[in-house]
Amino acid sequence: MAENKRRRGGGHSAKIAYREQSAQIEAPTFLSRKIPCYELLSEEELVRIEDHADWILQEVGIEFWDDEESIKLFKDAGATVKGNRIYFDKGHPLELCKTAPREFEMHARNPKRSTIFGGNRLIFGPAYGSPFVYDLRGGRRQGKMEDFDNLVKLAHMTPWLHHTSGTVCEPVDIAVNKRHLDMVYAHLIYSDKPFMGSVTAPERAEDSIEMARIVFGEECMESGCVIQGNINVNSPLVYDKTMTGALKTYARANQGVVITPFILGGAMSPVTMPAAVAQAHAETMVGVALTQLIRPGSSAVYGNFLTTMDLKSGAPTFGTPESSLATLAVGQMARRLGLPFRAGGHYTASKVTDAQAMQESADSMFPAFLAGANFIHQAAGWLEGGLVVGYEKFILDSERLGILHRMGDGMVINDNSLAFSAYRENSPGENFLGTEHTSENFENANFRSEMADNNSFEQWSEDGSKNAEERAYEKWNKMLVEYEQPPIDPAIDEELKDFIRQKKDSMDDEWY
Question: Domain for residue 18, yes or no?
Answer without folding.
Answer: no
